[in-house]
Amino acid sequence: MTESDNNSNEKRVNKPGAGGQRPYLGLQIPTQSAPKADNILLDLKETEGWFDSLPMANVGETARQVFSTLVEFNRIEIPDLLRAKTVEKFRPPVAYITTNLQKYYVDVGLPLSAKGWKTASLARELQKELAISYKIIVERMMSGDSADFDRRLLVIALHRALHYLGQTLLQNALVYSAWPEGIWREINFLYSYASQNGIHLIPVRPDDGKSGVSTTIEDIFKSLMLFASATPHRLRQSHARLLFSHLQDWSQFTTILTQDDGGTSLGRFNVDLWTDSAPMHNSLRTPLPGKRMAVLDVRELLKRLRSDFEEAPWDSRGSLQSGSPVLTRPLLRLLILAWSRPPDRRFVRTRLNFDLQVVAGLHAIHGNLQADDQAPYSTTRTALFRLEESDPPSGTPRRKVTWSSGSLENVSLTPLDNEFVNDSMFNDSHLTNDSGKNAGSSLKDFGEEVTPPSKEEEAVRHAVKTINESAGGYCIRWQGDDLPRIKIGELIGVESPTDRRRYGLGVIRWMTQQPDRILDLGLEVVSTRCEAAEVREPGKQSLRNRIPAYKCLVINDTDPSSNATASLVMNALNLTIGIDLVLSIGGTERLIRLTKVVEFSSAFARYLFEFVKSEAETPADGSRPEDEFSDLWNSL
């Protein structure tokens, strides 16, 4: 731009839409005031010198200087072109800082420490401030004189603003916080304005002068719709980041419909561009595509992901060798399910508050199931019980406690033919094939060898409160300084209120961050009872040749109404279906054979199994049960 362009931009500061007046699009931007004459941000060369002097090796000091300067930058009046050139200089250090901050709040388990929470908040605010810088440019240009309207600068500002609003969404998702108020209104407004003015398909390079794939405003918008509709509060932090990194490529297989083709609602999401609402499944709201509605069709993407599913590994061990994260079958399956059907609720929820005693992790559950017997567990008076109002006379036994509907005893078993099994992607699935692709591992490759249980190994139980419950599980509040850190997919043992050596087995399916770093967890009850066991590879044991055994949990609910089969829960192992193992449970050993994988995640693996008859159980004469009918077959 010429000098006259700069002068016109400076004049635009005082025009409607700048300062404290109401912005044109209603974007959330702070009030700008006149800067001091010696402010380095008014001179691009001085600003570049300041960036060059940042102590990048000291992440804390760099973060402090960049954040404070960026906040100041967004609150002073600066010509549009100078603001655009300066904010581009902020992008690399902000990306560097955010990457280094994530080690304090990603893959460390939740709830976060005070430092971890502040660090996550800083990373989110950095992205938010970058978005504000570009939103200021958009608002000022739209409310200024169109005679010298720089269309290219407007497209870049809209594109960058959407990009950093998306980064803000990611940072909120990583700590399972709700979407910030007003953020989807801004995302929707920015896309709506761009599409109505025909600039949503103009490609924008990622960085001036650098190589990279150009994207459009519509590409960014489709990516954000994909991210929100994938329900990231149901994903692990590492999976949410991996998903976000693939959105740009995957958005190329999606389409924003311009007219209703009358097809099925499956694989389609829509968003009301006039509201502060995230995308929702078309079956929940079926609109006609138009200026107010954007309908995203992801059916082509689903076809591609289903094809990728067959080629993907079951676990991420390959990423240790390649150095980059890989898409695994469990993650692809979650995404396919999320983008295929609406997030319907299978059970009615009932608001009911009571206490649960829980432990987190397979090892803690296993240890408590096998811990030495102690004094009977003394229950406490909570909303879970209906006790007598007065104590019985001294010396007489207290009558039995009557359990209310809030008891674990009344939570039904989630059948094995639920969503984890009835999907076609798990029918006849094997972790390996005949050619050896995705070769399974042996027990000795993973796991922690079992050591004799002792009283000291018993894990501390933690008291949590339920928010509501259903036949399939609970929503529980994870609150307290002494609670262990957990992740999506973690196994939770729920202690029976009547027997402290009996545990139900649950899995954390989703998280939501509440104020004051309180977590609400969706806990699916997999079984109302499980048993501690060990497995080892077949072979003769001897004092000199001891075959190591590994911890596992056995679910063996034979209730016909649950359609359940015995299953084995272990640490995340990639075991070949069809292999034989020796199961040690209750002081006895039985030979079992793994028949099917029920669920496989970063935290645990669950297999169906059947008992295999050993040679000792085979009749001495070698006959088989069906031999008595051998003379009948030909006559039928």
Describe this structure in words.
The protein contains 13 helices and 19 strands. It is α+β, with helices and mostly antiparallel strands. Among the domains are: 331 residues, no CATH class; 87 residues. The radius of gyration is 30 Å and the shape is elongated. The N terminus is likely disordered.
Give the total of beta strands.
19
Average pLDDT reading:
78
Low-confidence stretches: 1-23, 373-439, 452-456, 558-563
Radius of gyration: 30 Å
Q: Enumerate the strands of the largest sheet in spatial order, edge to edge or round the barrel.
A: 6-9-10-13-12-11
- Based on Cα principal axes, name the global outline: elongated
Work out the helix count.
13
Q: Report on the biggest sheet.
A: 6 strands, antiparallel, barrel
Structural class: alpha+beta
Percent of residues in helical segments?
Answer: 25-40%
Distance between the ends: 95 Å
Beta content: 15-25%
